[in-house]
Design a protein that fits this description.
The chain is α+β, with helices and mostly antiparallel strands. It has one domain: Avidin-like (Lipocalin, Beta Barrel), CATH 2.40.128. 15% of the residues lie in helices and 45% in strands. It has 2 helices and 8 strands; from the N terminus they run αββββββββα. The protein starts with a helix and ends with a helix. The N terminus and C terminus are likely disordered.
Length: 139
């Protein structure tokens, strides 16, 4: 009986974001778009995002918060609830949702640029080049 109680509590334990990669939009079955949306979170509370039709491997060299291209913002994570807003030269986009136990983001998105509103799912993908550069810098 104690095992079941522990198991149920651990299933709802706070999950933290992953910082060694990015979250990529999961297209729904109705989507015809070639574009994907990428989000990258940092432990200091900052987040960057970009929309591209390019391949994920092409992101590694430039998908950094120091770069001027991505949308930029700040996030808050409390339990499994995440909120953030990102700004670019075009305007602002707000996000609010949940971080799931399997490390996915289920977000409600509102664009103040084109008035888009929708629900989006993001899956985590590890960026191997990030890990390789950390290993090289520690040597």
């Amino acid at each position: 009986m104690l095992f079941l109680v522990f198991f149920e509590l651990s299933a709802y334990a706070q999950k933290d974001l992953s910082y060694d990669g990015y979250y990529v939009s999961v297209p729904d079955s109705n989507s015809m778009s070639m574009f994907k949306y990428y989000l990258r979170f940092y432990q200091d509370g900052s987040v960057i995002g970009v929309t591209t039709a390019g391949k994920p491997a092409n992101l590694v060299p430039w998908f950094k918060k120091e770069n001027k291209t991505p949308y930029k913002g700040r996030y808050t994570l409390s339990d499994s609830t995440i909120k953030f807003s990102m700004t670019s030269e075009q305007g602002d986009v707000t996000y609010e949702g949940k971080l799931t136990a399997d490390n996915k983001l289920m977000l409600t998105v509102k664009s103040l640029i084109n008035k888009y509103e929708g629900k989006e799912e993001y899956a985590f993908m590890k960026m191997e080049a990030i890990n390789e550069s950390k290993v090289k810098s520690q040597k």
